[in-house]
């Protein structure tokens, strides 16, 4: 019982959400034209058939202008006019179609509870019409007309109910898609924030440690400068070595946005970082894994800073990894490096014939990692489907890191 109540409340809430949306001007204009056309045709036909009593047809057809804005009010108002017609004894006329249109409208746009009541009102109207307009007929004809009218009423209501259910389903899908998009944006922002926090923390440790040693050595050298020149020289040498070591370590921290999960070397020992010169070995390893890779280099190759070389290597590595995961069997991949005058351009493409490319959305991986690495080097990364099928990653990495830093 509790579950049924909860379901009804949820359905009612969703229906309220649908009907609460502002009605487009296009829909209002359509309802106005519909009501006007029905009045001009069925209204005057009703007058021709029922005389002055046919004027009631305009009271049934005119309110249809507001049928979607006020579905409950329109239905019960039209129903009241139909009851008046029954009490006065006026025969059925073409304008009675307005009652069916109002029933359909309330079943689509009205509150669920009132829609059920409207179906009951329609069933009662069938009994009233049969008892009045076919009272002198044979009982078989009465039953036939009752079944026919009941089928029409039930069919109109059921058709509207089906449209309501479909509308609710579409609204659910739209709400879910919007929520997924918000979640994706939030996860992306959290991933970028986590990477920046990690980099800031590691740089802080490196810089704080190096500066502490340098300050201590500088103070000691200052006091020993007059009495022990050798000690002062030794302090200055220590300052230089510490500064160079800290700068090297800081570059490594900027380049390593994510640590390798498995290290073949001792993690406590310094590990040489790969660069552009290591790409042939990487590509060969990927080929051995079964992926067809074309590798090309254009322009005049040059010696790159360690940070820039590492960034280019990681972007290619990430692109090839995504291709292995998502492009499907039989996909072909190309890696192209263009040494321009001011920047290195890295292009990783595949034809994605197997299943298309979908970069990882896990925080700290995929496109998030690519963008973060490129931004540290002062570059940019663009990625997305390419014309004709497949996926393309393009990274533009300037040779000189802009002053002011990226973090």
TrEMBL record:
Domain Signal transduction histidine kinase subgroup 3 dimerisation and phosphoacceptor: from-to ranges: 195-260
Alphabetically list the UniProt keywords. Answer: ATP-binding, Coiled coil, Kinase, Membrane, Nucleotide-binding, Phosphoprotein, Transferase, Transmembrane, Transmembrane helix, Two-component regulatory system
Keyword Transferase (UniProt)? yes
PANTHER family per the record?
NITRATE/NITRITE SENSOR PROTEIN NARX-RELATED, NITRATE_NITRITE SENSOR PROTEIN NARQ
Q: Which residues cross the membrane?
A: 32-58, 117-135, 141-159
* Entry coiled-coil feature ranges: 170-197
**MF terms in GO:** ATP binding; phosphorelay sensor kinase activity; protein dimerization activity
Q: Does the keyword Phosphoprotein apply?
A: yes
Which protein is depicted?
A: histidine kinase
Query: Cross-referenced Gene3D superfamilies, in alphabetical order?
Result: 1.20.5.1930, Histidine kinase-like ATPase, C-terminal domain (3.30.565.10)
Instruction: Quote any Pfam family the record assigns.
Output: HisKA_3
Domain DUF7134 per the UniProt entry, residue ranges: 29-166
Cellular component annotations (GO), alphabetically ordered: membrane
What InterPro entries does the annotation carry?
DUF7134, HATPase_C_sf, HATPase_dom, Sensor_HK_TwoCompSys, Sig_transdc_His_kin_sub3_dim/P
**SUPFAM superfamilies hit by this protein:** ATPase domain of HSP90 chaperone/DNA topoisomerase II/histidine kinase
Name the EC number(s).
2.7.13.3
Q: Reaction(s) catalyzed by this protein?
A: ATP + protein L-histidine = ADP + protein N-phospho-L-histidine
Query: Which ranges carry the Histidine kinase/HSP90-like ATPase domain?
Result: 312-399
């Amino acid at each position: 019982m509790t579950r049924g109540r909860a379901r009804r409340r949820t359905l009612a809430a969703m229906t309220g959400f649908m009907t609460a949306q502002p009605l487009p001007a296009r829909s209002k204009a359509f309802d106005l034209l519909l009501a006007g056309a029905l009045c001009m045709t069925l209204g005057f036909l009703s007058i021709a058939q029922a005389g002055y009593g046919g004027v009631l047809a305009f009271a049934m057809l005119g309110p249809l202008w507001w049928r979607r804005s006020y579905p409950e009010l329109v239905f019960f108002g039209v129903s009241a006019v139909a009851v008046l017609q029954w009490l006065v004894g006026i025969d059925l006329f073409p304008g009675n179609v307005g009652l069916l249109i109002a029933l359909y409208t309330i079943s689509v746009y009205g509150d669920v509870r009132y829609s059920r009541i409207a179906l009951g009102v329609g069933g009662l109207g069938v009994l009233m019409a049969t008892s009045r307009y076919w009272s002198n007929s044979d009982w078989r004809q009465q039953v036939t007309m009752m079944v026919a009218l009941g089928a029409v009423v039930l069919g109109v209501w059921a058709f509207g109910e089906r449209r309501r259910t479909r509308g609710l389903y579409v609204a659910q899908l739209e709400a879910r898609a919007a929520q997924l998009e918000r979640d994706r944006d939030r996860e992306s922002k959290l991933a970028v924030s986590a990477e920046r926090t990690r980099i800031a923390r590691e740089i802080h440790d490196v810089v704080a440690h190096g500066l502490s040693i340098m300050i201590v050595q500088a103070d000691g050298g200052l006091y020993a400068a007059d009495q022990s020149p050798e000690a002062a020289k030794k302090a200055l040498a220590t300052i230089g070595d510490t500064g160079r070591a800290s700068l090297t370590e800081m570059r490594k921290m900027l380049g390593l946005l994510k640590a390798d999960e498995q290290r073949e070397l001792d993690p406590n020992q310094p590990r040489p970082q790969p660069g552009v010169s290591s790409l042939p070995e990487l590509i060969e390893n990927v080929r051995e894994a079964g992926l067809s890779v074309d590798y090309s280099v254009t322009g005049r190759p040059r010696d790159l800073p360690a940070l820039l070389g590492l960034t280019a290597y990681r972007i290619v590595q990430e692109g090839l990894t995504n291709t292995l995961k998502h492009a499907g069997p039989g996909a072909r991949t190309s890696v192209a490096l263009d040494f321009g005058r001011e920047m290195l351009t890295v292009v990783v493409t595949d034809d994605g014939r197997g299943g298309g490319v979908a970069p990882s959305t896990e925080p700290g991986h995929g496109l998030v990692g690519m963008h973060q690495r490129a931004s540290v080097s002062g570059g940019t990364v663009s990625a997305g489907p390419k014309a004709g099928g497949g996926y393309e990653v393009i990274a533009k990495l300037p040779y000189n890191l802009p002053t002011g830093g990226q973090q």
